[in-house]
Specification:
This protein has about 100 residues and is an alpha+beta fold. It is built from three helices and five strands. The two termini are about 25 Å apart. The structure holds zinc ion.
Length: about 100
């Protein structure tokens, strides 16, 4: 597997289909984009990932000032996990959201 630092995604081919650049081999600790979820679902996903002892990084898409205007329910979170836990985390997402 190969890794694109701009997409934060693992790819099977060594050229990124989105960026068109040559990719290095993926490393176990490369952060891979898992999923983007609204706050309510994000909290559920955090709990599931923690139950599975999967390390993750969660990025909030809107700033705190913004969420006051549009309401907290619209806030989204992007989840990233190290490649070593990517497949396991994907399974958690599929189980939770299918
Ligand atoms: Zn890319």
């Amino acid at each position: 597997m190969y890794y694109c630092q701009d997409c934060h995604m693992p790819y099977e081919q060594d050229i990124c289909p989105r960026c068109g650049v040559k990719l290095p081999l993926i490393k176990e600790d490369d952060d891979c984009f898992l999923v983007e979820k609204k706050e309510l679902w994000a909290d559920m996903l955090k709990e599931v990932l923690e139950n599975h002892h999967i390390p993750y990084y969660c990025a909030q898409l809107m700033g705190a000032g913004m969420s006051l205007k549009v309401g907290p329910m619209l806030e989204s979170y992007q989840f990233y996990v190290p490649y070593s836990h990517y497949h396991e985390a994907m399974q958690c997402v599929e189980t939770l959201f299918s």
